[in-house]
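INTERNAL AUDIT FORM
Audit reference: QA-55
Scope: verify that the stored structure record matches its stored sequence.
Auditor: D.O.
Record contents follow.
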Amino acid sequence: MTDNGASGWRVLLVPAIRAWWALRWLGGHRAIRSAVLAVVGLCGLGVVVWGVPPALYPTVAGQPAPSQPRATLQAGMLAGMLTVAAATIAYAGVRATLGAARRANELTQRRDNLTHDREIAEHRSARYTAAITQLGSPSIEIRLGGIYALERLAKDSPDDHPTIVEVLSAFVRTRSTDPELRPPPPADGQDPAPDRRAVDIRAAVQVLGRLPHRDDLPALPRADLDGADLTGPASLADIDLTDADLRGAWLEGADLTRARLDGAILTDARLNRANLTHAHLDGADLTDAHLQGADLTWAQLAERRTGADQTVITNLTRARLDGAILTDARLIMTNLTAAHLTKAVLINVQLHGADLTRAWLNGVDLTRAHGLTQEQLNAAIGDAETRLTWPRTRPALWPPPAGAWL
């Protein structure tokens, strides 16, 4: 290699090496790193174009230039490498153009997505505002439209679900206690006004029972109806809440006469003093439900057969039934584990196959209960005021009956 070739190598390699070390020092600066890479690439290309041909075909000292075939070969190789270099630069330009286009497309896509999300949020906000406006309409048809619009919105937008539950619950509380719903009694000699049921209240309660359960919001009540007057015109009699999810719902004092609650989830529900006469609760889950003073006369709380020919028992585990009226109620195969039945009325109640393990029967008159076995009594808890009749005997762990000689 000649001195000129060696000096050319050094001139091109030294900046390339320095650029390489600068590239490593720059680290994560993407834009600057790309520029340095370009410089290194150009330097390397210069080394290849101007350094390789002289190295492969060195000039022989003392030989005339025209007679040297190496000069021709060197020139041809140099031209070919320049062509390759030009093609490489063109390819790099195309790659850079495509990369810029891809980044522009990604930016456009992100901008479109943000615009789409904003439009959806604005559309949902408009739907919510329109539905709330409909709830305040004097027309029953428009109010019903607002209730069902909120139901659709709660299913389409999980973020709005808690707010819609609160709005519908507040609507039921406010509407059920509206003085206009219960006009004053007529004067003497006048006929009383017809008792018309508030269909909008019933629709709102049914929607609350149909909304999907949110596992990410376990503390969200299904229906906060505390203070609602669900009697008279606001009665829920004959309402169909089959398979409804009303866990934790406040329904104290509600008139649920003949209501269809088969398969309903009423865990931890507040049903104190509720009227459940002739109600159907087959297969319902009333775990930890509060039913103190509730009237369940002729209520059905037996097992339920599903479409898959499976049996689902009514679950009253730890339910609070103190003072509840269960006259003629069907509790066949019902799970009453640890249920509180203190001073409950169980006249003609049917307890065939019911699980009374650790059930509290303090002060209960069981003399007219049907289907009650000694095994069920042995698993239950009674006190001195629990009354039995032959052939059933008091379990050994129960205290003797009141007034008995010790």
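Auditor finding: record pair retrieved intact. Residues 3-57+75-123 form one domain.
Action required: none
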